[in-house]
Amino acid sequence: MATLALDQVAKSYGEVLAIANVSLTVDEGEFLVLVGPSGCGKSTLLRMIAGLETLSGGRVFLGDKDVSRVDPKDRDIAMVFQNYALYPHMTVYENMAFGLQQRKVPKPEIKEKVLQAARTLDLTELIHRKPGALSGGQRQRVAMGRAIVRNPAIYLMDEPLSNLDAKLRVQMRAELKLLRARMGVTTIYVTHDQVEAMTLGDRVAVLKPIDGPEESNLQQIASPQELYLRPASMFVAGFIGSPAMNFMYVTIESAGDGLCARIVDTSWSVALPPGGNKAVPALADHVGKRVVMGVRPEFFSLAQPSTGTTNGRLAVDVLVSELVGPDAYLHFDLPTPEVDIGTDLIQERAETGHTDSRFTARLDSESLPGDPSRLDLDIDVSKIHFFDPKTTLAIV
Amino acid sequence: MEHHPRPLRRLVIYALLALLMLFFIGPIIWFILLAIRPPGTAFTMPPVLFFEPTADAIRHTLVDPGANARQARNSLIVALGAVLLNLPFSVPAAYALSRYRMKSKKFIMLWYLGLLMAPPIAFLIPYFVLMTQIGLSGTYLSMILVLQTLIIPFSVWLMKSFIDEVPRELEEAARVDGAAWYVIMLRITLPLVRPGLIVTSMFAFVFAWNNAAFPLVLSSQQTATLPIGTLNYFASTGVTWSFIASAAVVAMVPPMLIFLVFDRYVVRGLTFGAVKG
């Protein structure tokens, strides 16, 4: 049991800078998820914590101890690899016992610990099999078992569920959650799957690839709920949430004692009365300027003719509608310049005359009319996000 | 993929295979026959197809007076010595070339290949001079050492391909598990490349066993190996074909036995990495 701290860690491969300016702390017993697209450095960061990659800069602390130059074997960590990395020539028992043997644990104690872990993970009957004779899910459990028996200060998990099929993944995710509740050991978990990140993590660190030494891979580190409700940047906003957040350029205008946001190149606008949206005070500085508005698909709703307010009502031509059980995903266009969040830079494609931007609304499938080709949509004004197009940071 | 050729086609294929086999096995059979022929029937025209087999030549080679028995023992010493000296050098080299990032990796590998391509005959004189000057000429060690110049490059290439197939993550998992580097080597990496060690050793053994060029200049009367013994029969007193054949047949046996016993490793070695398991 320990805390982990990263202090300004950096990693470069020759000229290529992979990681820079990452500082974070993990509390005792906390489950931190590192999430991001491929190439964001999340696995590298985990391997640096494990000691499998050397640091190009910064320091790593385990508890109070600076372990930046300590060999992995002396770090008291356990790691679950993406491909499990089970020793193919050893049985399940030997695989789990190996780490304990290296630490000179007495034989009877090893046996007791391994058998107990095997019971916990439902592996008792497979204990004398070799990894080659196990299914993917069983291998995954052995890999977990190998980490558990060690009772390390910190667990590191590198996409441990990504090699499982969808059904098994959901099942293992639930088991992992149970296991974690029972063990309560500090864990750092890498995934590219935001559902895993959101369901497992006490806190989630969103990482992105960097372009220069002045940037940081770490975009935001917060609870899943916080990331969803208050994304710090367009990158986080676009990455967390599925389907992804819709982005569009709006011009901020004064309207009475409040503001209003007009979608660029359209006549559509939404009024932002004081208190109607948390960003209103900050947006006052942006009057007359163009900012990025972000609306999550789920905060569109079918306009009800009976309701008095029509603020933010949007008439759209639905291009494609997808029914996914209780939800319906409606894809529509608006004749406004596209906002491309890419990996980090916003590119305005308006100058190329490209106005084919696509948006998604997520609606209750039962409320849909028979022919959802032209619909009126309302936006939940309080849930709209605004971002500075230059810095890509949230305006709050 | 199931594939059943029609009977006629099958017949043709088998006939071709039989012809091919005759091409490879023919000389061996011919030599075995040569060894057990009565002397004087070796090159007669028309060939003598039926004869009373005799073990005289074999007896001469191995037992009475055992003209080549000592040479067979010498061959065994040199070949086993070459195998034992090879692995401690080629395995770490192959490991380093497989695992570590280094700029000159390609160059080193090609350099090894270059050593294999050079005709050994080109080095005979320098090696002879060298070994004479350091007083090793005529010893087993001189032959074992000089053989390494070809065995090690070959083994490094072979072992590297085996080590390449061992996922790095296994070693990393062991590091995280708390294993020191030598534990990882002994308990993870080497057990996983055991087929590679066997195949490499087999080839090293057979190469050393069959090599005639180095013993020709480096061995003495006492340390001469079997190929030298065979060559000795091309003597001033005339060429005794039955003795040559007999010694050659004896020389053929160990490599054949080895490949028979370890056959499955060779097949695995040659197809290693072809299919992800």
SS field, number of helical segments of chain B: 13
Q: How many β-strand runs of chain B?
A: 2
Q: In total, how many domains does the architecture of chain A comprise?
A: 2
Find the CATH topology of the domain at 76-220 and 263-271 in chain B: MetI-like fold
Report the sheet-strand fraction of chain A: 25-35%
Largest sheet of chain A: 6 strands, mixed
In short:
The complex is a heterodimer of chains A (396) and B (277). Chain A is α+β, with helices and mostly antiparallel strands. Chain A contains nine helices and 22 strands.
Structure description:
The complex is a heterodimer of chains A (396) and B (277). With 396 residues, chain A is α+β, with helices and mostly antiparallel strands. Chain A has two domains: 4-231, P-loop containing nucleotide triphosphate hydrolases (Rossmann fold); 246-387, no CATH class. Chain A is built from nine helices and 22 strands. Chain A has a six-stranded mixed β-sheet, sandwiched between helices. In chain A, β18 and β19 (347-348) form a beta hairpin. In chain A, α2 runs parallel beside α4. Chain A is elongated and about 75 Å long. The two termini of chain A are 37 Å apart. The model of chain A is unreliable at 343-356 (pLDDT under 50). Chain B is mainly alpha-helical. Chain B has a domain at 76-220 and 263-271: MetI-like (MetI-like fold). Chain B is 71% helix and 1% strand. Chain B contains 13 helices and two strands; from the N terminus they run αααααααααααββαα. In chain B, strands 1-2 form a two-stranded antiparallel sheet. In chain B, a hairpin with a 2-residue loop joins β1 and β2 (238-239). In chain B, α2 (56-62) packs across α12 and α4 crosses α6. The longest helix of chain B has 31 residues, at 69-99.
